[in-house]
Amino acid sequence: KVGWYNAVLQPAFHLPYPDDTLAFVVLSTPSMFDKALKPFVNKEWLKIIRDPVDQCVSHHLSFVKEKFPDQKVDIIYDYEILPNRKPKFLAQTAAHVAGAAYYYQRKDVKLDPWGKKKIYGVCIHPKYGGWFAIRALLLFPDIQVPLLEQTAPIDCVSTEEKRIELLEQFNFHWQDWCYRDIIEVKERYSEEQKAYFATPPSERFRLLGLPGGAQ
């Protein structure tokens, strides 16, 4: 429910919907790369491809929207920002309150070893660890669910030692992918997918066989 999300954030980040409004957090799993992105690029759905992943996600969620012709469906994507440069929604907070993935933050560590350093939090999925992404929020403004019960996310990094290790790896060594394997995972990115996401965005078209930003 939108109210779960708004309840844990400052008013500046609240979503402008009644508290009982139904919402869904959309995640992409490791198989998205082969099952959705590569076919999307190969079929050349668009004449101009600016960001293949973002446009692929948008393409597939447009089909979801079509499945509910009698319902108003609002979609907010993880990359969208407001005029004040704030994100339209805080993806990791949304995933946590929806019970999809646990958002580990500095406040989850009792004996904080970082002093004045800025420490960012990170979501971990009980099945995929850090090998997933939060892509969008689907909102159904006309559906109110006052009786929907909140499910807590699975706390899969439950020890103090492991939480410190996770936040250390994510904040200071994120390029080596290690934080994503903080727990035993059932599936991870392929080497091809890792190469794609490790490549600067401007050079990713070459990996996909696309010249520049065009077809």
TrEMBL record:
It holds the Pfam family MMACHC. Its EC number is 1.16.1.6, 2.5.1.151. Its cofactor is FAD; FMN. InterPro entries: MMACHC. It comes from the Eukaryota. One of its GO terms (biological process) is cobalamin metabolic process. It is found in: Cytoplasm. It catalyses: 2 cob(II)alamin-[cyanocobalamin reductase] + 2 hydrogen cyanide + NADP(+) = 2 cyanocob(III)alamin + 2 apo-[cyanocobalamin reductase] + NADPH + H(+); apo-[alkylcobalamin reductase] + methylcob(III)alamin + glutathione = S-methyl glutathione + cob(I)alamin-[alkylcobalamin reductase] + H(+); apo-[alkylcobalamin reductase] + an R-cob(III)alamin + glutathione = cob(I)alamin-[alkylcobalamin reductase] + an S-substituted glutathione + H(+); apo-[alkylcobalamin reductase] + adenosylcob(III)alamin + glutathione = S-adenosylglutathione + cob(I)alamin-[alkylcobalamin reductase] + H(+). Keywords: Cobalamin, Cobalt, Cytoplasm, FAD, Flavoprotein, FMN, NADP, Oxidoreductase. GO terms for molecular function: cobalamin binding; cyanocobalamin reductase (cyanide-eliminating) (NADP+) activity; demethylase activity; FAD binding. GO terms for cellular component: cytoplasm. Belongs to the MMACHC family. PANTHER family: CYANOCOBALAMIN REDUCTASE _ ALKYLCOBALAMIN DEALKYLASE (PTHR31457:SF2), METHYLMALONIC ACIDURIA AND HOMOCYSTINURIA TYPE C PROTEIN (PTHR31457). This is Cyanocobalamin reductase / alkylcobalamin dealkylase. It comes from Nothocercus julius.
